[in-house]
TrEMBL record:
Annotated keywords: Cell membrane, Membrane, Transmembrane, Transmembrane helix
One matching Pfam family: PLDc_N
Principal subcellular localization: membrane
A GO CC annotation given for this chain: plasma membrane
Entry membrane topology: Multi-pass membrane protein
Protein's UniProt name: Cardiolipin synthase N-terminal domain-containing protein
Subcellular localization, as worded in the UniProt entry: Cell membrane
Statement: the UniProt record of this protein carries the keyword Cytoplasm: no
Transmembrane segments: 6-26, 38-58
Domain (Cardiolipin synthase N-terminal) ranges: 17-58
């Protein structure tokens, strides 16, 4: 049980770092192609899982 809790804690921390890094890239990068920076920031903050995935797929074309 302790191992499961530790694993969940590590995954949560890694996801938090990914959200912070995505916001950093958004703020310091060039103007987004599809939506404004403010809209992307709101999406990433309010919907962290979906927002981060959508940002990297739509704006950064990670699937190309």
């Amino acid at each position: 049980m302790l191992l499961v809790n530790a694993f969940q804690g590590i995954l949560g921390f890694v996801w938090f770092i990914l959200v912070v890094y995505t916001l950093y890239v958004l703020v310091t990068g060039k103007k987004p192609k599809n939506l404004s920076k403010l809209v992307w920031a709101i999406i990433i903050i309010l919907l962290p899982y979906v927002g981060v995935i959508l940002y990297w797929i739509i704006e950064k074309n990670i699937l190309k």
